[in-house]
Description:
The chain is α+β, with helices and mostly antiparallel strands. It has two domains: 3-79 and 293-412, no CATH class; 87-221, no CATH class. Helix content is 31%, strand content 18%. It contains twelve helices and 15 strands. It has helices at 3-17, 28-37, 40-46, 49-52, 91-103, 141-151, 154-164, 166-175, 192-196, 256-267, 282-291, 379-400; strands at 55-63, 69-76, 116-118, 197-198, 201-205, 208-213, 216-217, 229-230, 233-235, 241-242, 246-247, 330-339, 342-351, 356-365, 371-372. The strands form five sheets. It has a five-stranded antiparallel β-sheet, sandwiched between helices. It has a three-stranded antiparallel β-sheet with strand order 3-5-6, with no helix packed on it. A three-stranded mixed β-sheet has the order 10-9-15, with no helix packed on it. Strand 9 (233-235) and strand 10 (241-242) form a beta hairpin. Residues 1-24 have low confidence and may be disordered.
Amino acid sequence: MNFPFLMLTCLILGATYASASAQQKDSRWLEELLHAQASPLLQNILNKPDTFQYQIIYTRINRDKNNRTHFKNYYLNVDRNRYFNPASTVKLPTALLALEKLNSLTDKGIDKYTPMLTDSAFSKQTAVLADSTAENGLPSIAHYIKKVFLVSDNDAYNRLYEFVGQQTLNEKLWQKGYKDVRITRRFTPMSEEENRHTNPIRFVQDGKVLYTQPAARSNVTFDFSKAVHIGKAYYNWEEQLIQEPMDFTTHNNLPLDDLRQMLQSVLFPESVSAQQRFDLSPEDYAFLYENMPKLPFESNFPKYDTTEFFDSYTKFFMYKADKSKIPEYIRIYNKPGWSYGFLTDAAYIADLKNEVEFMLSAVIYVNSDGVLNDDKYDYDTIGYPFFKEIGEIIYKYELGRERKYKPDLSKFKR
């Protein structure tokens, strides 16, 4: 199809459906756009929403004459009641709340760079007293957050989870309006009770203890009334094949639209209500804007093998499917997750050369054999190509879209 004609068609459809309720979580305009440009692979996915359980949110961003942002979301097959395993996407709110908690402890003389030593006091807990990947050889909140965004490091998330605490983590998110979010566990084999217990922690500087956080137990009450079972079989932690669906009832939960909103609240805090914002300092925002789009080869501490941790290791949209290099003028601020056959990513993508920006969020389930924990998922053949093509279609549309005011993207330049 001729692309200018497609754009005109989409604009007309967009005007037709502009008044649709935001609660509908479906947009004929987005559906038409994707189908018009889709390859046979993508057409097959789009035509099988029950099989692939995909959800897609495209967020159009317009600027006014004062460079203020205005957002419009277009949804396809989005349903917050359809469970998907959020995997590493829960690391985003956990990192943000770790920074928020630190800002409540400034009177203790600590910050994100202060060495943080983790001890153990309960079953399955482990201590961390050093970090060879840090320049000073010591762990810190800042270093853990860097690793979370660079390569989605699981242990780094576990340490942030332990610092914030399960109860604070969930209650703070609920207070911000994310009522359906549930973060119940670390990413290591632990029981529900073990995950309620968090480690004693010390912040130290030059051998002096500045602040001690005692071991704690979360007493938060979760609503596990809705049973969630996925697949036809799974391997348990002992690598035994269990011939029944896997139970996700008590697992982490983070609806796609909430993940998108959290990302927007960090990158554009002025665009959301005060209640939804995280209590971050200007230095925190600068730190996040520097580290969220950073690629593994750009990091010296930690230093990564770029054969394994290539440019697009955590950048699903447009790039990960073929492990291609990301152009220097493209910035991707995102948090992906991959686990149990689910792939998820929420991203803000800025093209500094062409002055283009948009947000894109999606999830897909690619597990054709129905067995979980067997490491046989269709990530490479279906999942990552899905994200590549969705990203390319929206990016191409954005490159041709008329804007009354060009965005000033200087705050995202390095």
